[in-house]
Amino acid sequence: MSLEAAVHAQAIELIRITMDMCAAAGSGHPTTSMSVSHLTTVLMFHTMRWSPDYPNYPTSDRLVLSEGHAVPIVYSAAAKLGVQIGKDTGKRRRLTIEDLKRFRDIGSELEGHPNPVEGFAFFDAATGSLGQGLSVAAGLAEAARLDGLDRRIYCIIGDGESREGQITEALDFIVDRRLKNVLPIFNCNEYGQADRVSAQQSPERIAARLEALGFDVRSIDGHHPGQIIAAFEAFANTTKVQGGKPMAVVARTVKGWGAPSLQGNGWHGKPPTGDALKRAFTELDERRVELTSALASSDAFTIQPPPEMPTRERSEGDVPPLGDTMRAMDMESVLHAGRLATRRAYGIALRALGHANPDVVVLDADVSNSTFADIFKKDPALADRFVECKIAEQNMFSAAAGMGLAGKIPFVSTFAKFVSRGYDQIEMAIYSGANLKIVGSHAGVTLAADGPSQMGLQDVAFFRAFTRVKDHRGNPLCYVLQPADAYAAYALAGVMAEYEGTCYMRTLRNDTEFIYSDKQVFNLGGFEVLSKGRDVVLCAAGYMVHEANTALELLDKAGVSATLVDLYSLPFDTDKLLDLINENEGNVVTIEDNFGGGIGSAVAEALAESGDPFKLRQLNVARMPKSGRTPEDVLAYLGLTANDVVKATMQHLGV
Amino acid sequence: MSLEAAVHAQAIELIRITMDMCAAAGSGHPTTSMSVSHLTTVLMFHTMRWSPDYPNYPTSDRLVLSEGHAVPIVYSAAAKLGVQIGKDTGKRRRLTIEDLKRFRDIGSELEGHPNPVEGFAFFDAATGSLGQGLSVAAGLAEAARLDGLDRRIYCIIGDGESREGQITEALDFIVDRRLKNVLPIFNCNEYGQADRVSAQQSPERIAARLEALGFDVRSIDGHHPGQIIAAFEAFANTTKVQGGKPMAVVARTVKGWGAPSLQGNGWHGKPPTGDALKRAFTELDERRVELTSALASSDAFTIQPPPEMPTRERSEGDVPPLGDTMRAMDMESVLHAGRLATRRAYGIALRALGHANPDVVVLDADVSNSTFADIFKKDPALADRFVECKIAEQNMFSAAAGMGLAGKIPFVSTFAKFVSRGYDQIEMAIYSGANLKIVGSHAGVTLAADGPSQMGLQDVAFFRAFTRVKDHRGNPLCYVLQPADAYAAYALAGVMAEYEGTCYMRTLRNDTEFIYSDKQVFNLGGFEVLSKGRDVVLCAAGYMVHEANTALELLDKAGVSATLVDLYSLPFDTDKLLDLINENEGNVVTIEDNFGGGIGSAVAEALAESGDPFKLRQLNVARMPKSGRTPEDVLAYLGLTANDVVKATMQHLGV
């Protein structure tokens, strides 16, 4: 049997399996799967250099299924190939056709959309929120480039999905970074969910866009095995030569290919059952007779295994303390001045971490001179590991996720406000088990002059939602870190690098006074008691620790003995904090430079769950902030200065 | 003096004023302002049909400054023209040059980035988080089209900013919707913040992209008055003819135009002072001598006023109750079945609201058959007010904001998970005082089979952060609404339409049983006591009201008398809830289908702030959910079934 006929036969078999699988589940997207049946067959049975026995082997070629709802066809192929599955890597087993009957079942590894953490390690990242896959693929490609691995990354993107702006961001990124080892494959099946795709996403228009962006475009019939194979061979060839344009494939396909009764509108996310299924099977049989001359067999295919992983000489060094690092950077005078912005300490930490650990990479979005990530960028020994993403945060976060999933430790920084541009992407990265170190600078209202469009105000509430959810390793889905001084920022950057999982750190625009020293130890889940009193606990983080500290002194003069807690981590040790509040008559005041839902809520939850008669007063941003020339102006406008803290505390205590 | 010389003279004067303004503030972005000095001069002094006396007159042409940091040049022009400013519309006054000295001051209307709610009504929307302006402009254009107004919308976009994928989404939207009354103007000054812009955002590449997307592109010298005026005239002409392509302008400009000493890298967000300022002034004087033949005067310009606002015949009808609407839609049998998905009730409500109020418009992102927004779309009398945005949520939310700011009542729906793609945009819309009615469908874990990539899990935490912040009218920045049945969803959609401000409503994929009837009244800030007991209050919302209700019956059998509260609104009447908890021995259990940070946190805050010995137990999604075939499977996996509620409640009460 010719390779072409074998591809047809295999594709048709995968479709049959897929239709059974979706019918059993009572949901799923068989018609989208059918549109990528030939592309998937050629990739998984022929083109990709990988091993079903080690589906996430580090040198393997990878498939990122950006249009995640097409996943059943990949499961079908994986079952045919006996791909290893299992949440516990020590107890993996071969996927069988029988397993497919449990697609989307609560006990199954086969999730409704790609989700590696549930045990299907063929995929690196969770997809399904559309438009993100190409960025993840680009991140995998960037990591392979840094590691000198000849890995090819294939990414299937839906035509409707390509309307997501992030796809264009990823394409720009691929051209900018000259990533010729990633292949965007546009699956143009002409139908979205509710209706046909727009003419703006026609294969012709997509090809024209790609050309305008600087791609070498190959338009093919996505159900023609010969054309698919030739396109993938052309791609392989381009990866072997230096220079030239990156390549992209525009594949015309048919949604519901092989079964005309399922084509057109109305069969998205709706598996045929009963007579409709029978009819589709009959139609598929006709296609098989027409397109293949003999019974199909996957024996016709040879999958080339990935190369052995090269042994890497890894020398992880120690990270020197901040004082030493700054002295080595001729910053002795700043050290003596006793004030430094946490954002700058972050930049200094990046440099130290970069030298200590070759896996540390840094991504930034045209604000590295503000976040101080440029300290890393400007170091010639590290510059190759600095990835400038330009003003396209969505792509940056997904690409960072890809780099993290390929073994890098990606620090990703921009203004805290602009981190919110990538919340969907960050969430998907967290679900993928990615190892993101997100740093939002200019956090909170003390940014002042630029106004609310540049302030991170809801960021603590957003990320806190993830802190009380356990991931597949039993850790919080995310830690939120708010350093109050340069020592804390420097140390916490190091803690983030050590930890495998996602963290979000807020840094500040303005200089803050040193509170700590290099001797101080910071832990995920920890907090620090800066001053111990008897009457009330003041809980603050970041900039507000300094306001609270001033308030503490004023309270002392007024005869109130306050305890000051730097609540630099969410989550934190609740019992320990409750004990402290107990020792302070049950009184607590929380002080934040952001909207509610942050540390005030976290403390409130701890108190309310304890059932003890504690009393909380929350101070946070309770009206819209505006521009002001100084942090103090804005804090005064919002009732958040040290004097306001004093007033609120006295009132709270009834004195 | 020729018009060209007058433009040069005026532009140079605006630059001088801008540099003084930024020097006084000690911050701001003069060099970006200088790059758009001629474009702004031509628009505000010559091309736009508007009135400085009524800067937000509803028929005026509009300028959306997507690269918001260029705002000083607009303030300079506004001061020269004596534009009316003031937060209180009844007490507006003319902006003066003197006022500019307070730029970015806490007491000033002149924010660091455009922000209409602080009193500068020349702008419709807050900008400054980049890449959003063109979508807002498209929304304004779409509203003008619907209202039959000959309004032209100009949008200035930075070249670096155009990397944001949302810009491409907006361009696709403009072509799809044939919006020829909006003009994207790309300001190609070649410099971003940290570095030069990528070659991907060169003027040639931007022009090539625009052509590939279907635009008629005019590339000009952005400091050549004649070319600018001719381009805007060409645009005006295209708006007068039917058909043809939409137009875009690519303007080559110089960052720091007029003062070579401020050009190149290093002067972004950094106003010159002292000698640097003097030198720049000298350089500007040389340009003036070179380019103008006489002293400048704005007398050379005539601003054409906007046409009188046509009197609109508005007939707002009543919204019939759900029962009547469903009977009119031949849905009597569904009504009798006693179960209906809240998402479908939302769709039914849209139709009723659309008929009752001509300002109601609906936007959706290719999921209208899932959100049931297609009930509105399919009604021939309403179809013109349905705006299909395709799979591009960021553009959808910003365009909806634009429509809302132009007087429409935009309902915007997609999956709750995909709403998160637009969180940054939604936040900016909220800051703009926009009137968004956001509906996230398939919310929470009971979506089940599709898995976590399609579930809204952190949405309540995110939106709750806005519920405790007051807007410029003294209202919460947002209400979060969680209807538990079809009657609630239908009624709350009506409440949202009535209210001027942003709301977020969560709807459910699965049918839920009727709890209410058409007699029930729902209020923003309200909650409903469904059953009154003595021992413990169960607080739930949405789907979980039904689990809680089952738990209530089981608890009753076990001798526990529980009170059931449908906490359908955030914020809610805290005192009333505390009274109820007081009547129930201080015991409360909250039950949610999302991550923490939602109603559990809201209740915790109320309890902890009261200082009474209340005791809370929170049940929410505390581990990563996965696919399951039924809602019950997933709830059981997460410990959130009625039985789990019973168990937790008994434990909580120590029985």
Explain briefly what this protein structure is.
With 655 residues, chain A is of the alpha/beta class. Chain A contains 24 helices and 21 strands.
Mean pLDDT of chain A: 96
Radius of gyration of chain A: 28 Å
The CATH superfamily of the largest domain in chain A is known as Thiamin diphosphate (ThDP)-binding fold, Pyr/PP domains
Distance between the ends of chain A: 91 Å
What's the count of strands of chain A? 21
Largest interface: A-B, 126 and 125 residues
Fraction in helix of chain A: 40-55%
**Anisotropy-based shape of chain A:** elongated
Which residues of chain A sit in consecutive blocks of at least 5 with pLDDT less than 50?
A: none
Tally of individual helices of chain A: 24
Based on secondary structure, the structural category of chain A is alpha/beta
Multimerization status? homodimer
**What's the CATH class of the largest domain in chain A, please?**
Alpha Beta
CATH architecture annotation name of the largest domain in chain A: 3-Layer(aba) Sandwich
